[in-house]
Every structure is written in C-alpha cells, then in structure tokens.
Amino acid sequence: MTTVEEDKAGLVLLDFWVSPFGQRCRIALAEKGIEYEYREEDLVNKGELLLRSNPVHKKIPVLLHHGRPVCESLVILDYLDEAFPDTPRLLPAPAYARARARFWADYVDKKVYECGSRLWKLKGELKAQARAEMVEILRTLEAELGDKDWFGGDSFGLVDVALAPFTAWFYSYEKYGEFSVDKVCPGLAAWARRCGERDSVAKHLTPPEKVYAFIDVLKKKYGVE
C-alpha cells in the first residue's frame, strides 16, 4: 500500500548526492519539468524503503511512482518517456534511432564508470591499461557524436542524459589518468561544456572538485594508497 509520504507529488526518487546514475534521473526529470520528492539515501546503512523497493540489487537510484518502484537509471529514463508522454521525450520517434540511442546509452553504462574506477584503484601497468582504455572509450563516444550538437542530433536526448553526469568526473579521470580530455577528445570536451550550460545539467551535477574529494574518501574506504 502506498503511504502518504511515498505518494507526495506521485514521484519519489531514492538517490545519493554524488551518484552519476541518480543524476541522470534528476536531469531527465528537470528536462521534462516533472515535480518529484528527492530522498537522500545512506548507502552505508541502507534504509528499509530502499531495500524493500530494490531487493535484487539494493542500489540507488529507485523511482517510486505512486509507491511502485522502478529500478536502474536507464530503465527509469525509459519509464519517464512512457509514463509521461506529454513531456519532452528523451528517445526519438523512429524505431531505429531509438535502438541506436539505447545502444550508446548502454555503452556508457557498461564502460565509463567501471573504467574510471580502475584509474584510481590501480597502479603501474594496470593503471596504464585503464588510462588507454578510458581514452579509447571517450574517443569512441566522440566519434559517435561527430559534428552534432547532441548525440541525437539537434535535441538533447537519452545518450546525452546518460553521459552528462560523468562530465563532472572528467577532472578526476584526468588527474588519475594523467591525460587531458580537451586534448584527446576536443569535440567531446566541447559537448561537455554545452551540457554544463543547460539548467537541467548545471543544477544537478556535483562540482568536479567535490567528486575528486569523494573519490579520496572511497580510496581510504577500500585501502587504496
């Protein structure tokens, strides 16, 4: 049964301040102009509502819509398009274009965060391998972007929303990987700046220096020197 608290504005987002996956949802909700209640979660001592809402992965983000949970950030973005069809859409209308957008959003999902984590966790040759892989990932994304303003063309869409939160992590990737996004991927760097000029993105991104400080906390947690 839906509680009064969960039913506020119809939508509740269970999230964590620095999570790029949660930020995707916040950006999408802002782009669509949808009101919701934000609820910060303690990921060390996970709350009963989070554990009940996502019993399989026990992770944020979770979107509660009238008490019914939708889990995983890309699934949530899809859901927002379908549940609120009168709002600006993240996915294009043609079936092939939608499939292509989903492919690249999935590429971001599987590649960027995992590789970025290896940059600050590893040393020596393994770290050098992670650096080379990160540069390859970013160049692959830049090639898909091409000379377009946004990954979908003229409209800020699914792939942009999926990747935009990681622009706040570029600074840390550069520091630990000892490379410059501006130098290796100038087109992608310009895209990142365009993202930062959008209210929906600027309002919800964590400042890069705070991301860097958060990674330092993670390093201490995992015993990484």
How many distinct beta strands? 4
| Rg computed from alpha carbons, rounded to a whole number of angstroms | 18 Å
Number of helices: 11
> Outline, from the CA principal axes?
globular
Percentage of residues in strands? 5-15%
Which regions contain 5 or more consecutive residues with pLDDT less than 50? 1-8
User: What structural class do helix, strand and pairing data support?
Assistant: alpha+beta
Amino-to-carboxy terminus distance: 47 Å
User: What is the spatial order of strands in the main beta sheet?
Assistant: 2-1-3-4
Mean pLDDT score: 95
Major beta sheet summary: 4 strands, mixed
Query: Oligomeric status of the shown chains?
Result: single chain
Report the helical percentage: 55-70%
Please write the string of helix (H) and strand (E) elements. Answer: EHEHEEHHHHHHHHH
Structural account:
It is a single chain. The protein is α+β, with helices and mostly antiparallel strands and 225 residues long. Helix content is 56%, strand content 8%. Strands 2-1-3-4 form a 4-stranded mixed β-sheet, covered by helices on one side. Strand 3 and strand 4 form a beta hairpin. Helix 4 runs antiparallel to helix 5. It is globular, with a radius of gyration of 18 Å. The N terminus is likely disordered.
What are the SSEs and their pairings?
Blueprint: E1 11-15, H1 20-32, E2 37-40, H2 48-53, E3 62-65, E4 68-71, H3 73-83, H4 95-121, H5 124-145, H6 158-163, H7 170-177, H8 181-184, H9 186-196, H10 199-202, H11 208-221
Parallel strand pairs: 1-2
Antiparallel strand pairs: 1-3, 3-4
